[in-house]
Fold this protein.
Amino acid sequence: MVGRTTDPHVQALITDYSSRLGHYVPFQLEAIPELKNTRALSADQQKSQEAELIRRQLQPGDYLVLLDEHGRERRSVDFASWLGKKMSAGLRRLVFVVGGPYGFHETIHQQASEEISLSQMTFSHQLIRVLFVEQLYRACTILRGEPYHHE
């Protein structure tokens, strides 16, 4: 994720769901530092610099999935099925990236294997973190047939 989570309430929820996820899969969050002195930079320049920071975190063989408003939407059960297939595919690392406030630079879009949208609505890049970690947790409970998800 680009930038640290600044709201302590949001961070508490992220920490809670991250802890729960650890019971199902190896999981870690990595925050890329926010850019400094951005007033002098255009949105594209910011995205370009963030793209470079994202690339530095990637490893060969990573399956890169961007959380992007133009990505494919899925219902929770469909996302769980997709996640189960990816986890069974023998991928070295499945990497999801939450971008900065302006989204992703085109070079990161080109490098990504897939793009996922959580909603057609727009959420702050801070809030989307907790929504996504909760959906990862929900997907894991669906895959295990646990009662967290109700349909």
In short: The chain has one domain: 8-33+45-143.
